[in-house]
Design a protein that fits this description.
The chain is an alpha+beta fold. It is built from 34 helices and seven strands. A seven-stranded antiparallel β-sheet has the order 4-3-2-1-7-6-5, covered by helices on one side. A hairpin with a 5-residue loop joins strand 1 and strand 2. Helix 3 runs parallel beside helix 6, helix 13 runs parallel beside helix 16 and helix 15 packs parallel to helix 18. The longest helix is centred in the last third of the chain and has 31 residues. The relative contact order is 0.03. Belongs to the SMEK family. InterPro entries: ARM-type_fold (IPR016024), EVH1_PP4R3 (IPR055236), P4R3-like_central_dom (IPR006887), PH-like_dom_sf (IPR011993), PP4R3-like (IPR051137). It holds the Pfam family EVH1_PP4R3. Its main location: nucleus.
Length: 834
């Protein structure tokens, strides 16, 4: 069904082809689409309605019932404007006048109005008199006083009295339009000015200000006609609040000059340009500021200017010779600088007008500019040394980038195939940013925003054939990144910035902001660039800048890197000792409580909170002496505690187990772990263990005392035997037992490093993590250390055993120690039930 509708619409003429506009919250007309309008009875709306179907897919853009009390206005012969239930304003802009007249007649037929009028009625507000609330047409017409000098006071009072009543405003509008009253008032103005009748001129000012407040397009068309607009401007010169009259006519007629940079053959276009400029001057300069009036009091005047701009852009685009001629002259080497400057300023104004277009129309607009060589023209202008053309070119470039950064990126990639780095558009933009002569760097800030848009991966598209992100970023880091960072590298050759004036500091801050953006969004490319150029070291030189915002920018760059929590960056920072300048700056700042102090403490706090082990170790081992005196925050003390805990985990088991670790084998591992956990008050899930009774506690204490005495006697006995004779192998046969363990090498029990006497490792040192490194003491369940081992034994057995094995243990058939072991009380701790 929709397909058939679209075919019927395409086959019909363009009489009913319209654009639908909606006045948004910012009082700007928003284009909601193009379609075909019709009027029909809609069942769900219970009445005749206006329907607009999209010309692209046939969907309904508008479905609005023609209500008897809705005020419709016909403006400029091709516009119908109305308010929808006091919620928002709508407008239909017809392609042809005949189509507008046809729909207008149907609206008037439904409302029972005369189609010859250009307005049906105004909305009736609650404040209206009761007798006219339901039948506004019953209100009597307003009889205008005779247009004479002696009646000016009476006329002015009449205009003031009707502004508060919508019905009387409507009646006044009809009277003004029907009697040609405005032109009669302008004749009185000439008389008063000739007679120097100041009171009469002041009355005329109040009258014409009230005419503007009637907010009627039909009246504006009379006021802004070529033969009346300067008289209207003359009336508005005599503001009673001014001591002497203004000189607006002199400015518009003599001071202002219209520069026709390209000859305009279309007379309607030329008149529309003149009218738009003069009306905008009246709105922005002559009339009082909007705060004096009620909201939306001059909304129709704003709409008048808006639609004029839309028409101007459309007429210029339709001219097949105008824009090609403009760009041809702009790119011609023979064009003198003065004329080229006028061309650029015109193009900037043209792009400004294009902002009134809707996205789909703006897209075609900028594509046409691009096809005509707008970006190439911008390159030419930026290469020139003209202080007026460059800002205009930057504004044009900004409009294009904001609307379609992908189009600009595509252009840059294409020109990169046959141009040197110095001639690339993006490099010219960066150089313009770097060389901005404005002390406040206003242009540089604008250009930084443009560059950020171009390198932002969020607005880059990925297609089946290519990925714009990888392609363009690779190009940017290869061909343009060195241009962006050149001022930073040049200023950080020494241990402190070479130049530290305000303008240089501003530029360094902008570069740091862009680099910080790159760290956040360009993971791979910026990482390689930072490492290969040692960029962070050079950035940290700026911590010694006398401008706090530069130092904070440098610190923010480092904070963004650390915030990624990538060990690749952490190793780079540790190996380069890059915390040294940060600690020095922190020490230099002293006890001052400022933003730099807080930012640095936050950096260290982040490392502590996120438990970045490599950075924590580096800070404590190399910089704690400079930081431990800072006690007004607990950050550095907590870092030291975390470091100590980390070292404890690396170096081995808890201290209470050192005496017992040598005799606990794999078979008692489970009991040993449970014994260690049972000493805690609570387990992980929050359940409390039942405490041991006093009898069991005393029993275990006596058992541990006997074990300790036995171990000391055993150690002394072994030492005396080893001095008398070399060690002997007592067993007749050995059994190799490989016990796989899930324990880490830091386990205090049965680690290979705790069994120095194990076969296969006769002279190997204990594990570096063992707390008993270098103590050659055999375990109770192993044979004494032998002086040699099998020649075929591979030394790598030790490392292999550390990863997956408990150890290789010989169980002798005859051992003189077995009898003594039988006398040792059972060292296992009885399990406690909960």
């Amino acid at each position: 069904e929709r397909f058939l509708i679209r075919r019927k619409m395409a086959a019909s003429d363009n009489r009913r082809r319209v654009k639908l506009y909606l006045l948004d919250e910012k009082k700007i007309w928003d284009d909601r689409g193009t379609g075909h309008v019709s009027s029909a009875y809609v069942e769900k709306l219970k009445g005749m309605s206006l329907l607009v179907r999209s010309e692209t897919d046939g969907t309904i853009l508008l479905e609005s019932r023609i209500r008897p009390d809705t005020a419709y206005q016909k403006q400029q012969e091709t516009l119908i404007v109305w308010s929808e239930a006091d919620q928002y304003d709508l407008a239909l802009s017809f392609q042809e006048k005949d189509g507008c007249d046809e729909i207008w007649e149907k609206i008037c037929t439904v409302q029972g109005k005369d189609p010859s009028l250009d307005v049906t009625q105004d909305c009736i507000e609650e404040s209206e008199e009761d007798r006219y609330e339901e039948f506004p047409d019953a209100a009597p017409p307003i009889e205008m006083p005779p247009c004479e000098l002696s009646k000016l006071d009476e006329i002015a009072e009449l205009f003031r009295s009707v502004l508060s009543t919508p019905i009387r405003k409507e009646k006044l509008f009809l009277a003004l339009e029907a009697e040609g009253y405005i032109k009669k008032l302008l004749d009185l103005f000439h008389m008063c000015e000739d007679l120097e009748n100041i009171d009469g001129l002041h009355n005329l000012y109040e009258i014409f200000k009230s005419i503007f407040l009637l907010n009627k397009t039909e009246l504006f068309e009379i006021l802004f006609a070529d033969d009346t607009i300067f008289d209207v401007v003359g009336v508005l010169e005599y503001d009673p609040a001014l001591k002497t009259p203004a000189h607006h006519r002199e400015y518009l007629q003599k001071t202002v000059r219209f520069k026709e940079v390209i000859p305009i053959s279309n007379r309607d276009l030329l008149n529309k340009i003149h009218q738009t400029y003069r009306v905008q001057y009246i709105q922005d300069v002559i009339l009082p500021t909007p705060s004096v009036f009620e909201e939306n009091m001059l909304s129709t005047l704003t709409s008048f200017v808006f639609f004029n701009k839309v028409e101007i852009v459309g007429m210029i685009q339709e001219d097949e010779k105008f824009l090609p001629s403009l760009f041809a002259q702009l790119m011609d080497d023979e064009t003198d600088d003065g004329h080229r400057r006028d061309l650029v300023l015109f193009l900037k104004e043209f792009c400004t007008f294009s902002q009134t277009l809707q996205p789909q129309n703006r897209e075609s607009f900028f594509k046409k500019l691009s096809s005509l060589g707008a970006l190439s023209a911008i390159e030419v202008i930026l290469a020139l040394d003209d202080p007026k053309m460059k800002p205009a070119a930057i504004d044009i470039f900004s409009y294009i980038v904001e609307f379609s950064p992908s189009m600009v990126r595509e252009f840059i990639l294409k020109e990169g195939q046959n141009k040197d780095d110095d001639d690339l558009l993006i490099n010219l933009v960066i150089e313009q940013m770097i060389n901005d002569t404005d002390p406040e760097l206003g242009g540089a800030v604008q250009l930084m925003g443009i560059v950020k848009l171009l390198i932002d991966p969020e607005n880059m598209m990925a297609t089946a054939n290519k990925t714009e992100k990888s392609e363009f970023l690779g190009f940017f880091y290869k061909r343009s990144m060195h241009v962006l960072t050149a001022p930073l590298f040049a200023n950080t050759v020494d241990s402190k910035p070479s130049k530290d004036d305000f303008q240089t500091a501003q530029l360094q801050s902008l570069i740091l902001e862009l680099l910080t953006f790159c760290v956040e969004y360009h993971a791979y490319h910026i990482k390689n660039y930072i490492i290969s150029k040692d960029l962070l070291r050079r950035v940290l030189v700026l911590l010694k800048s006398g401008h706090a915002f530069v130092a904070l920018g440098a610190l923010r760059f480092m904070r963004k890197i650390i915030g990624l929590k990538e060990e690749f960056y952490n190793r780079y920072i540790v190996n380069g000792c890059l915390f040294q300048p940060v600690v020095e700056a922190f020490r230099q700042n002293g006890n001052r409580y400022n933003l730099l102090n807080s930012a640095m403490i936050e950096l260290f706090e982040f490392i502590k909170t996120e438990d970045v082990k490599s950075l924590c170790t580096h800070i404590i081992e190399h910089h704690i002496k400079d930081l431990e005196s800072v006690t007004y925050v607990n950050t550095f003390n907590a870092l030291k505690v975390r470091y100590d805990q980390q070292q404890d985990r690396i170096n081995g088991m808890p201290t209470f187990n050192k005496k017992n670790q040598l005799w606990i084998d794999s078979r008692t591992l489970e009991e040993e772990e449970e014994r260690w956990f049972d000493q805690e008050d609570e387990v992980d899930d929050g359940e409390t263990l039942v405490p041991m009774n006093d009898v069991l506690k005393s029993k275990l204490d006596s058992d541990f005392d006997q074990i300790n005495r036995f171990m000391e006697n055993r150690k002394a006995k072994d030492q005396s035997i080893s001095r008398e004779s070399p060690p002997r192998l007592l067993n007749k046969a050995s059994i190799n037992i490989n016990i796989k363990s899930g324990l880490t090498t830091n386990s205090p029990v049965n680690s290979p490093g705790h069994s120095p006497g194990s076969p296969g490792s006769p002279g190997s040192p204990p594990s570096p993590g063992s707390p008993l490194m270098g103590v050659p003491c055999p375990t109770p369940n192993s044979s004494p250390q032998t002086p040699s081992s099998s020649p075929s034994q591979d030394p790598s057995v030790i490392s292999n055993k550390r990863l997956g094995l408990i150890g290789l243990v010989d169980y002798p058939d005859e051992d003189s120690d077995e009898e003594e072991e039988e006398e040792i009380p059972n060292a296992k701790r009885p399990r406690l039930s909960t």
